[in-house]
Design brief:
This protein is mostly helical and 120 residues long. It has a single domain, classed as Winged helix-like DNA-binding domain superfamily/Winged helix DNA-binding domain (Arc Repressor Mutant, subunit A, Orthogonal Bundle). The protein is built from 5 helices and no strands. Helix 1 runs parallel beside helix 5, helix 3 (67-78) crosses helix 5 (94-114) and helix 4 crosses helix 5. The radius of gyration is 16 Å and the shape is flat.
Length: 120
C-alpha cells in the first residue's frame, strides 16, 4: 500500500470516527443519559442479542427518514465517503450535504424517540 493510499485510508477512518461520534452524540447519547438516570446498571458483558436489537432499531429509524437524508447518512457515515465526493455524486454543493447530514441526524433522533427507543 502506498503512502498516499495509507493517508487516504487514515483520513477515511478519522472521518468515520468523527461522524460516528456525531451520530452517537445526536441520536443515542441523550437517550442513554435518560436510561442511566432511571436505573443504574452494573458492569455487564455486552449481550449480542441486545446489540442486534439496537442495530435493528437504528435500521428501522433510518428507513423512516426521507430519501435525501438517508442517502447522505449512508454515504458519509457507513461508507465513509467525504462530503465533497458525496456532493459531486448527488450534484449538490458540499454545504448542502453537510446540512442534510445535520438534519438527518436530528430526524434520526426523532424517529428513534417515536419508536420508544430506550437505549442499549
Amino acid at each position: 500500500m502506498t503512502d498516499t493510499a495509507k493517508a487516504r485510508r487514515h483520513d477515511r477512518i478519522r472521518r468515520h470516527r468523527r461522524l460516528r461520534k456525531r451520530l452517537h452524540g445526536t441520536a443515542v447519547r441523550p437517550r442513554l443519559a435518560d436510561a442511566a438516570a432511571v436505573e443504574e446498571r452494573p458492569d455487564e458483558e455486552e449481550d449480542p442479542y441486545e446489540r442486534a436489537l439496537l442495530a435493528w432499531e437504528i435500521e428501522e429509524a433510518l428507513r423512516r427518514l426521507g430519501d435525501a437524508h438517508r442517502e447522505v447518512l449512508v454515504e458519509t457515515y457507513y461508507r465513509c465517503r467525504p462530503y465533497a465526493e458525496v456532493a459531486a455524486q448527488l450534484g449538490v454543493p458540499e454545504g448542502t450535504v453537510k446540512s442534510r447530514v445535520y438534519y438527518a441526524l436530528r430526524a434520526l433522533r426523532n424517529a428513534l424517540e417515536e419508536m420508544g427507543f430506550d437505549g442499549p
